[in-house]
Write a structure and sequence with these properties.
- With 141 residues, the protein is an alpha/beta fold.
- The protein has a single domain, classed as Rossmann fold.
- The protein has six helices and four strands; from the N terminus they run H-E-H-E-H-E-H-E-H-H.
- Strands 1-2-3-4 form a four-stranded parallel β-sheet, with helices on both faces.
- The protein is globular and about 40 Å long.
- Keywords: Cytoplasm.
Length: 141
């Protein structure tokens, strides 16, 4: 993501609107129509503005303890009709509970908790992560 890790920063991603526009541009450039957006940790700064504004363009959403969930109200989340799998490791006792507290307002959500996994639950328990993800994907229309 621009501005994270070793990637160069980009002026357009300073605001939530800019990050939403950036993600929209990426999806358009890739020719993706109704993708499932998997969003771990810092990518929440990009995925959540997109979800709230254009969630109808997604077939599904899989937040994995994303940052930025407190930036939106329960009412904003309640307007989103995107099927969502809220996924996190039970050893992530800091970010995951906060994200769950906010994301539980999404009307079409289910929750999968990976026992023994931390914040990067997909690295800690890859088989359990993929099992939960594939189960969710199979249920999408």
């Amino acid at each position: 993501l621009p501005g994270y890790g070793d990637s160069p920063s980009a002026e357009m991603v300073v605001t939530a609107q800019g990050r939403r526009t950036f993600l929209d541009h990426v999806l358009q450039e890739l020719g993706m129509q109704r993708p499932v957006l998997v969003s771990p940790s810092m990518s929440g700064r990009f995925s959540l503005p997109f979800l709230v504004a254009q969630g109808d363009r997604l077939a599904g959403f899989v937040p994995i303890a994303p940052v930025g969930t407190k930036d939106y109200t329960a009412e904003q989340y309640q307007q989103v009709q995107t099927p969502t799998l809220i996924l996190y490791g039970d050893h992530d006792t800091r970010l995951a509970p906060q994200a769950l507290q906010n994301l539980k307002h999404l009307p079409k959500h289910r929750v999968a908790v990976l026992p023994g996994a931390g914040h990067a639950c997909y690295l800690d328990k890859p088989e359990d992560f993929h099992r939960a993800l594939l189960g969710f994907l199979r249920q999408l229309k």
